[in-house]
Every structure is written in C-alpha cells, then in structure tokens.
Specification:
mainly alpha
Length: 384
C-alpha cells in the first residue's frame, strides 16, 4: 500500500544502509499526521465546554500516547534521513510529498499544547511549561521556515502543472496558524508588559500570514475540483484538510481574545473579543459547508472503491480544530448551539481517530504501510 498515492518508487540505487533498515526507507513526513491526529483528541477533549466523567483521564492517556508517537516518528524520520538520504531528497523534490513537511511543526505544536493542557496533571505545571516552551519554539521556527521553503520549491523546482492543485498544498502554510492558536497558552507565563504584548501581536501576525496564504490557495483548489472533477480516490480524504485553517483560525481569534485583556490596552482588548465573534461565526459556517461537501465526496469515493491509506489521517486534526473553534465560540457567545456543535464534532473526531489508528496498526503489522509506493490503479468511481 502506497504511503503517498501519487509517488512512485525511486529507481536509483538505494543507500548501502537500506539493507539494514529497509523499513525506514518509505517513512515519509506524512507520518507526523498520526501525531497531530492523536494530540488533537486530547487537546480538543479538554477544551469541550461540557463536563463528561472520565474524559479528562482519557485525554491524559491519549496525550501520553501522542508524546510516545512523536518520539517514535522523530526517531524513524531521523533514521530515514541518515540511512536513505537519496529518498529523503527525492521527497523534498516531489510536489506530491514535499507539502507534508508542514506536518512536522504541527506535530510538535500539538503535543506541546496538549502537554500544557492535560499533561500538566501528570508532569506538574513547571515541567509541562518547559516542554511546551521547547516544542512551541521549535514548532514555530520550523513552521515559519516550511511556510517559505515549500512554496519556494513549488515555484522553482516542482512546477506543478495547471489544474493539479490539491488540499495538501495547505499543509505548509497552516503551521503558523497553529502557532497563532496555541501561543496564547504561553502569554500569561511571560513577564507583563512588552513581553506579553509582543507575544500576542506576534500570534496575530502569524494568524494573518497563514490566513492570507490560505485565501490565495483555496480558489486554486476549488477551481481544480470544478474543472478537473473529483480528486483521485486515495486523495479524497485530503478534502478535510481545508477545515484545518478554518477551524484553527477560529480557535486562534478566540484564544487570543481570552488573553488580550492582560496583555494589551483596553480599547484593543475589547476589539479583539468582538473580532473573535464577528470572524469566528461566519468562518465556522463556511467550515460546516465544506464539511458537508467533503463528507459527500468521501461517501462517493467509498462507493467507488476507496481503500485505506495514510490520507485517512486527514479526518482527524482538521476536525479537531473545528471542535476547539466551536468551543471558543460557545465560550464567547454563550450559545448552547455551539456547545452541542463542539460535542458532535468531537464524537466525529474520536470515531475518525479510532478508525484511522486501527487501520494504521493493521498496515504496520502487515508491512503494507512500510512497503515501496506503487502506481495507483485506475478505479472508476460511480457517478451517482
């Protein structure tokens, strides 16, 4: 089973170490999606505006699993770069694979924030803060670098053909939005005055950076769907990736509004709270529209023969950002409707995570997910 549906196995001679570590050759950057999708289950569960007995403990267990997954994937990717540099370079120069490098910073950020939110129950506040500072700093730095480097490669080296835009293109530019949404956790930990205000406004700058980049790419993605038809079956789940910047930006404005009163002057603090609602409600409406469209396309793909691939992890993290976005709107508006929306989306998130996790474990044990990618077989989906 191919990890990257549009990527063919390399014909060049493998690195000598490939004989010793054959299973690492095809461990690509998309494996960080398993970390993101697991960490968001813990973080979104803690953000729900309802009390569910046992949920906090369950989220703590999921956070621990996400931390272990992060360590495992980091080690595997380090081994991949060490033993299979030819394949690693090929991934960077492959327009179907390179955008997945945006998953690395988001995995670091997601685990760092969930450590601060639920991991502190185990580690204590000081240790959890230290972990979050390290992971947030690394994730933000890498995310900003990726947001520049991957679009640069797309223009200079990849040169994708017209009409081939994919939701995967959003991954490199969404990472700064994740930093914007999770940075408010650290604002109260900084010295009051200039430090807190600088952090707050830096998060808003990353919010704007990611939002405008997303608005640049979304028309290309929708135009590709309209003019070229549905995505290939294996890529259909990536339609859920569009929910990422929508839900994460709604989360970001809500979280920033929460910490603004202690970090910036009164006129701006109240304006930020107003903006959180005026921006968040329309964007959440569009997110629900896109969710309905994406679900319809996935149902069509399943009827047409779509089988499991690592793109199924697209069902997790983006939906989780909509959970936290809806929870923020429930907090700022007091509307019960947003509370139940957050709960419904969280149920969908947990179901998607369970299915993707079980299928991934099965693929690992069978070796299918560690095998060389193969050219996708043409499958004709039903038209109705």
């Amino acid at each position: 089973m191919a990890i990257f549906p549009q990527t063919h196995a390399q014909t060049s001679a493998p690195h000598p170490a490939a004989v010793r570590l054959p299973s690492l050759r095809y461990i690509g950057p998309n494996w960080y999606a398993t970390v993101m999708g697991t960490a968001i289950v813990a973080g979104a569960g803690a953000a729900l505006p309802v009390h569910v007995p046992g949920l906090r403990a369950a989220c703590t267990v999921v956070w621990a699993l996400a931390a272990v997954l992060l360590a495992a994937v980091l080690a595997a990717r380090a081994g991949h770069w060490s033993a299979h540099r030819d394949q690693a370079r090929a991934h960077l120069l492959d327009p179907a694979v390179a955008p997945f490098y945006g998953c690395l910073p988001m995995a670091l950020l997601a685990v760092g924030s969930s450590t601060m939110v639920v991991g502190r129950d185990v580690l204590g506040h000081r240790a959890a803060l230290a972990v979050d500072v390290v992971l947030y700093s690394a994730g933000t730095a890498i995310g900003l670098a990726v947001a520049v480097a991957i679009p640069y490669l797309m223009v200079v080296r990849h040169r994708p053909a017209p009409g081939t835009a994919s939701p995967v293109w959003l991954l490199p530019v969404v990472a700064p939005m994740v930093s914007a949404a999770l940075g408010p956790l650290l604002v109260p930990e900084l010295p009051s005055g200039q430090w807190q205000e600088a952090m707050l406004l830096a998060c808003y700058a990353m919010f704007g950076l990611s939002l405008l980049a997303t608005l640049t790419m979304l028309p290309l993605i929708f135009a590709r769907l309209v003019h070229r038809g549905p995505l290939p079956l294996a890529l259909t789940p990536t339609l859920f990736l569009v929910l990422g910047p929508l839900g994460q930006s709604t989360t970001a404005v809500g979280q920033l509004a929460d910490v603004a009163p202690g970090a910036i002057g009164a006129p701006y603090a109240s304006a930020f709270k107003t903006f959180a609602v005026l921006y968040g409600v329309p964007v959440m409406g569009f997110a629900l529209l896109w969710l309905a469209l994406a679900v319809s396309m996935v149902v069509r793909a399943v009827r047409g023969g779509m089988t499991f691939s690592m793109t199924w992890w697209s069902f997790t993290f983006p939906v989780g950002t909509c959970v936290t976005g809806a929870a923020g709107l429930a907090r700022h508006t007091g509307l019960t409707a947003f509370t139940w929306l957050a709960v419904a989306l969280y149920v969908l998130l947990v179901a998607a995570w369970s299915v993707a996790g079980l299928r991934t474990l099965r693929g690992l044990f069978s070796g299918a997910l560690l095998a060389a990618p193969q050219a996708p077989r043409p499958v004709t989906a039903r038209t109705t």
